């Protein structure tokens, strides 16, 4: 049965004025997937024996990751509800993206504007990393050897910056550059948690590379809040 | 090794190689004459006590002879080149009935578009294979080549075949392979930092092998195109 | 000679030179100083271009191994000493760019165009001395801009020295933005310097020849520089225009070369090679001229077929304009044009052959003194011949299908530009060094340098024909990626080791050049007993060049005139009327 996407909100309240201001709750939740998950396209890695050797079964391009009814690689962020002009300092630890078995790990991730991104190559083959942002300066660099690391930074917030490798045309990743630290990516079971949100009511947005975006409203209290998104097979 | 051209496996090979060896012999003779002449003159006419250079300004006969000989030789080479060039690259060189494939070059891969089960290119059942060109032996083949981003050059050394593929232009590249086997395709025009990795294969099959391969890949492509029913767990 | 009466013509120049150090050596308007300035700048770039070549050879000879001293390079060039592919393509691009535009061309035209033209035609200086000075300092700023490209984000230009669009026009596809823009800007500015220089040379040769210096008494070096200057004047503006279009495509969003919006990538190639092929002759003609001068002097014989040499220079200069398409046989240009360009290209073999045979004719029945410059001149003829003959392979379009963009081309162009131009330059530098600095270069070390260079040079470039015939593509970072290239790895390693030795050998030349400047044996006015006007003035020549404007009586190469005591008759010396040399009347 084809269903339009629906979201459910489960809200819990424990309100006192003082705690509401001070509370820093975690929003936890899951991204659900209904319907039959499509098969991911197979990748023929015959030309890169080094990568091919890292798989026991034929590798596929993990566009749609569904486990236990949860959808992975969904990027969740806060689109409204934060005080105007809320900014936070970028953490000093870098966000990391690894090239392993001729695929990007993770495939979707977020960093803060100004936070460094460590690009790592765990394959003993050439990868080039071509970043194509619209608001930031793009780059196109290469990493010919295993263990090579390169640091890059995007100073301006921008959603879904495409990363790609042109040597292995199937390799694609998306990087979200955020102004605030309130974002998360769902794991392979669809679970996520957004930490450190001050108490209040927010609109959250979930983004998936194939199924687009869903929004949800969540109210955060001292004990946190929960949110559920549901994507359906198209 | 040396100046010997490696073994080639297309119908262009014998003609291009023959031309190469003819030029090698002609230039080889000129090379030997000039270099030996220089060494001989250097030795024979080195400064020696009591010997004076001859006061000579030139010799019209000699100059006319070597000008004429050079001119005739190069014109002959030029004339010999014409038919071979026309056969490989001439405007109407692609034989009628050649098997057609689409080749799309982009940084840094060669995507080959195959006609699906209907045998027609540019129809809905076409399928694409990355970096793999499969063709039958002893059949005329034409590649309808385009580039998506920058200039690439389709180079199969074993076929003696090279053609730049320019974005915005459609190149028709034809050949006829004469021996089954896998051969390497290289990009011969600097196309960016991954230029050296832009490598692909052309596999020349016997007709039966080729038919089998094409059927298998077409079926596989068809099954992948259908939304398969892998239930979500 | 230096009587006070003789200085009437140049009273302003010949009195005690009271110019300040800066006016004399830095912002000088003296053609000789400007020439030497060009020379020193180009030699520095020559060393730099050579260093880049060594890095290229390291990667090809020892792919994937950490480069010695590679750890000194920043992470954007080499990771842990292992060169990155993007740095490799920048190296390939900049080796070509630097060698062509900042080493060979300014050595030939900047150094010798400046130094020789007034001295050899009997003029006190260039027609426009201040424009001449401007030309040099504009060239320096272009050089600084070009070097700056190594230090900008994204690295230096990486589209090859030919800068093929759209790779050069699209930063998103190359990963290079500012580097490629600086490359364009630098070439545009350098073009201005070249145009100013060429205008100056042409004007000087036409207007400032000494009395009696008729066109057919001009030495072949001057003829070659004159024709090359005309080529510069006509060809460089085409490059500048193309580079401006490319710069606009990169920066302000024009679409000359972008096919997605109606542009045409082949337009760049047509423009580039319409400049590029005359450029090839700009890079070889002057060297041919110098070699003719040096060979005649060394053989103590007039140049064989002086007039046909001049006609050959002129016809090469002319034919150079109608052969550009032979760089584009495989580009997708209309294949019917292939035949046209084959024929015009093959025709260039004719004047080239005439020149080679005439040089041999010059040596024939001569009395050859194998000084260092003469060795280099003979080396030039031997090597240029190879470069010319290997060109025949490419001019045959079907053979070019196979060898285009392979190491065969790399071998060919280096036999012309190194074996040709650079050997010609070594001959010229060692020959005119005494006139520049008043001292001789060391002959022993000069000969050691020649022989080692000759051996290692051939060890580097001869095997490149071989790997080219096996299909080895040029400009690839790691040949070991291809199965059909794997058997060639030992050849690549051999080439690389030879290249390191060849590079080290040039240290001998550098040391000889520098040490002789201070410690060399003092040269007299005419150490080689040559006939040119420049040898009638002191070494080094004073500001204003000649004590007295020389009058020319003779053809340029009157050596071993029968019946004369000396075996050379300077151009400005009257022969005994009863024994007037045959060539003097022209």
Structural summary, described in words:
The complex is a heterotrimer of chains A (234), B (233) and C (586). Chain A has helices at residues 17-22, 49-52; strands spanning 24-34, 66-67, 70-71, 75-80, 95-100, 103-105, 108-112, 116-121, 127-131, 139-143, 149-153, 158-164, 172-178, 183-185, 191-198, 200-208, 212-220, 225-232. With 234 residues, chain A is mainly beta. The radius of gyration of chain A is 19 Å and the shape is globular. Chain A has one domain: Sandwich (Immunoglobulin-like). The termini of chain A are close together. Chain A contains 2 helices and 18 strands. With 233 residues, chain B is of the alpha+beta class. In chain B, helix 1 runs antiparallel to helix 2 (60-89). Chain C has 3 domains: 25-263, Cytochrome c oxidase-like, subunit I domain (Cytochrome C Oxidase, Chain A); 287-521, Up-down Bundle (Cytochrome C Oxidase, Chain A); 527-586, no CATH class. Chain C contains 16 helices and 2 strands. In chain C, strands 1-2 form a two-stranded antiparallel sheet. In chain C, strand 1 (78-79) and strand 2 form a beta hairpin. The longest helix of chain C is centred in the first third of the chain and has 37 residues, at 85-121. At the B-C interface, helix 1, helix 2, strand 7 and strand 9 of B face helix 4, helix 9, helix 10, helix 11 and helix 12 of C.
């Amino acid at each position: 049965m084809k269903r339009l996407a629906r979201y459910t909100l489960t809200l819990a309240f424990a309100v006192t004025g003082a705690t509401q201001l001070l509370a820093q709750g975690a929003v936890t939740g899951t991204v659900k997937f209904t319907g039959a998950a499509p098969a991911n396209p197979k990748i023929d890695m015959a030309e890169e024996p080094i990568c091919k050797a890292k798989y026991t079964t034929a590798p596929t391009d993990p566009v749609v990751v569904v486990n236990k009814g949860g959808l992975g690689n969904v990027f969740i962020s806060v689109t409204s509800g934060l005080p105007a002009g809320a900014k936070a300092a970028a953490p000093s630890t870098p966000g990391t993206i690894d090239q392993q078995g001729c695929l990007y790990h993770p495939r979707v991730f977020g960093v803060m504007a100004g936070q460094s991104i460590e690009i790592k190559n765990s394959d003993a083959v050439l990868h080039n990393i071509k970043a194509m942002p619209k608001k930031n300066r793009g780059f196109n660099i290469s990493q010919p050897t295993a263990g090579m690391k390169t640091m890059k930074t995007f100073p301006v917030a921008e959603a879904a910056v495409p990363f790609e490798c042109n040597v292995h045309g199937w390799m694609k990743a998306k990087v979200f550059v955020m102004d605030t630290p309130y974002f998360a990516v769902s794991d392979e079971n669809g679970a996520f948690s957004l930490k450190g949100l001050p108490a209040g009511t927010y609109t959250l947005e979930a983004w998936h590379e194939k199924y687009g975006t869903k929004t949800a409203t969540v109210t955060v209290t001292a004990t946190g809040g929960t949110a559920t998104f549901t994507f359906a097979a198209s | 090794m040396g100046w010997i051209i490696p073994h080639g496996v297309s119908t262009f090979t014998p003609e291009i190689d023959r031309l190469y060896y003819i030029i090698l012999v002609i230039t080889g003779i000129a090379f030997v004459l000039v270099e030996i002449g220089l060494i001989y003159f250097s030795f024979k006419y080195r400064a020696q006590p009591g010997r004076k250079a001859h006061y000579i300004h030139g010799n019209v006969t000699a100059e006319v002879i070597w000008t004429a000989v050079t001119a005739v030789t190069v014109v002959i080479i030029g004339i010999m080149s014409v038919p071979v060039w026309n056969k490989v690259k001439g405007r109407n060189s692609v034989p009628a009935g050649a098997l057609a494939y689409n080749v799309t070059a982009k940084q840094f891969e060669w995507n080959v578009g195959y006609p699906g089960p209907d045998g027609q290119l540019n129809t809905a059942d076409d399928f694409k294979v990355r970096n793999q060109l499969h063709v039958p032996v002893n059949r005329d083949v034409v590649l309808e080549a385009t580039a998506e981003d920058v200039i690439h050059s389709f180079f199969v050394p074993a076929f003696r075949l090279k053609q730049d593929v320019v974005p915005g232009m459609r190149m028709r590249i034809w050949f006829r392979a004469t021996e089954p086997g896998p051969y390497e395709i290289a990009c011969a025009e600097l196309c960016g930092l991954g230029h050296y990795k832009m490598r692909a294969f052309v596999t020349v099959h016997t007709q039966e092998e080729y038919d089998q391969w094409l059927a298998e890949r077409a079926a596989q492509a068809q099954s992948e195109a259908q939304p398969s029913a892998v239930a979500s767990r | 000679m230096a009587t006070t009466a003789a200085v009437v013509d140049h009273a302003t120049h010949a009195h005690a030179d009271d110019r300040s150090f800066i006016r004399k050596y830095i912002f000088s308007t003296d053609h000789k100083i400007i020439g030497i300035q060009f020379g020193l700048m180009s030699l520095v770039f020559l060393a730099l271009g050579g260093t880049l070549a060594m890095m290229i050879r390291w990667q090809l000879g020892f792919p994937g191994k950490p480069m010695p001293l590679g750890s000194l390079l920043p992470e954007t060039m080499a990771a842990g000493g292992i060169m990155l592919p993007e740095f490799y393509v920048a190296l390939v691009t900049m080796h070509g760019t630097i060698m062509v535009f900042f080493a060979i061309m300014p050595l030939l035209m900047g150094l010798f165009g400046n130094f020789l033209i007034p001295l050899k035609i009997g003029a006190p200086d260039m027609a426009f001395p201040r424009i001449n000075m401007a030309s040099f300092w504009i060239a320096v700023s272009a050089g600084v801009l070009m070097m700056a490209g190594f230090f900008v984000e994204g690295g230096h230009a990486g589209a090859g020295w030919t800068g093929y669009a759209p790779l050069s026009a699209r930063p998103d596809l190359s990963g290079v933005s500012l580097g490629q823009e600086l490359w364009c800007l630098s070439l545009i500015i350098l073009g201005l310097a070249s145009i100013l220089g060429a205008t100056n040379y042409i004007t000087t040769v036409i207007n400032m020849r000494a009395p009696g210096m008729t066109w057919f008494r001009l030495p072949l070096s001057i003829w070659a520089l004159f024709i090359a200057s005309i080529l510069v004047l006509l060809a460089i503006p085409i490059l500048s225009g193309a580079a401006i279009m490319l710069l606009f495509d990169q920066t302000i969003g024009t679409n000359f070369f972008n096919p997605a919006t109606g542009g045409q990538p082949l337009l760049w190639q047509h423009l580039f090679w319409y400049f590029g092929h005359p450029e090839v002759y700009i890079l070889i003609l002057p060297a041919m001229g110098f070699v003719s001068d040096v060979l005649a002097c060394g053989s103590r014989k007039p140049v064989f077929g002086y007039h046909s040499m001049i006609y050959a220079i002129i016809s090469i200069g002319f034919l150079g304009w109608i052969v550009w398409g032979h760089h584009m046989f495989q580009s997708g240009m209309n294949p019917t044009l292939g035949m046209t360009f084959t024929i015009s290209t093959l025709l260039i073999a004719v004047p080239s052959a005439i020149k080679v045979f005439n040089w041999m004719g010059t040596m024939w029945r001569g009395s050859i003194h194998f000084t260092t410059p003469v060795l280099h001149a003979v080396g030039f003829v031997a090597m240029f011949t190879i470069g010319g003959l290997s060109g025949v392979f490419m001019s045959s379009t079907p053979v070019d299908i196979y060898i285009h963009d392979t190491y065969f081309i790399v071998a060919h162009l280096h036999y012309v530009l190194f074996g040709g131009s650079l050997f010609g330059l070594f001959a010229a530098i060692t020959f005119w060094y005494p006139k520049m600095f008043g001292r001789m270069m060391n002959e022993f070390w000069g000969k050691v340098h020649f022989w080692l260079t000759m051996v290692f040079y051939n060890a580097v470039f001869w095997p490149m024909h071989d790997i080219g015939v096996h299909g080895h593509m040029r400009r690839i970072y790691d040949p070991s990626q291809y199965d059909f290239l794997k058997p060639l790895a030992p050849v690549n390693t051999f080439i690389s080791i030879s290249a390191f030795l060849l590079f080290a050998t040039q240290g001998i030349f550098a040391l000889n050049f520098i040490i002789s400047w201070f410690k060399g044996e003092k040269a007299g006015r005419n150490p080689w007993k040559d006939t040119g006007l420049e040898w009638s003035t002191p070494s080094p020549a004073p500001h204003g060049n000649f004590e007295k404007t020389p009058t020319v009586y003779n053809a340029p190469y009157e050596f071993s005139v029968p019946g004369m005591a000396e075996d050379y008759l300077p151009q400005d010396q009257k022969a005994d009327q009863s024994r007037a040399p045959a060539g003097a009347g022209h």
